[in-house]
Amino acid sequence: MYILTSKRNMFLSVIVPAYNVENYIMKCLDSLLVKSEKDYEIIVVNDGSTDKTGTIIENNYINKVVYINKENNTGLSDTRNIGLQKATGEFVIFVDGDDYVECDYIESISETINNNSEIDVVYTGHYKEKKGKRVKNIGFESEINKIWAIEDFLISELGKRHFPVPACFSIYRRKFLLENNLKFVTGIYHEDELWSVEVALKAKYVMTSDLCYYNYVIRTGSITQKNDLTQNGLDVIFICNKMINMLNNIENLYVKKLFANHISMLYMKGMCRGKLYRKQYRKQFKRFLPIKYAYFCKDKIKALLFAFSPYLYSRLDLKYGKQL
Hints:
The protein is an alpha/beta fold. Helix content is 40%, strand content 20%.
């Protein structure tokens, strides 16, 4: 393990999980290594890569980053958690090893936060890049450039049948994460689905910003682009069951209903994603569970269709998507 000496009053920790990204890691790290008046550190955790990822980092960046080399591949969640343990910055961001950031990302983040001590999380926009083409996206539906008490934000966002999920598109106050022992659950896909909810339910104040510093690269061979998504679907069902256990901790009745509706929609999405309507997986999910938790009329109708025929629901969802 190689560690670059940290400076005092560190502003930002950038955590970079890297697994078999030999064709992308140099672009990622070069974009992060910018000159700035702000103090920052880059923590790269090589998750047991079997390609040249580790060699590239050791040959080119060993004196520029905090480098942690794991012998075994233990997954994205564990890799991020290790990065969080080593982080010393006031704020934390996550950057996947096959993505990259804008050159002024530190200054942009600093200006956005603007020394506001109340903010636990900043939800930002991002650029989605596929085959060299970039499209700007805002990862939330609520009013932008606003500081929210968390209940107001949840009512606004969940009330629009939406919730911001990817960890990479947000900025976190490290003290907030530590005080609430917020870690990624290991051994599952779609860990961000659970993380984002756990974070939101612990936060007091969050900010929505139109800042776009992150470039999300969609590539073949990534976890989300593989052909067999059975385990993905099973893990989403697992996550939904974990979320159901959180409902009792939500005091605001309206927020609880909106959150339950989110669970209902995610549950059906998990079944569709993993094609769990197949005979061998039918016992892995409950057909009538979404009816119990759906709140909006449109979603109640979808849950009824799901209960009648998960296969038919899946086919219609595949064809019509958000229009269903």
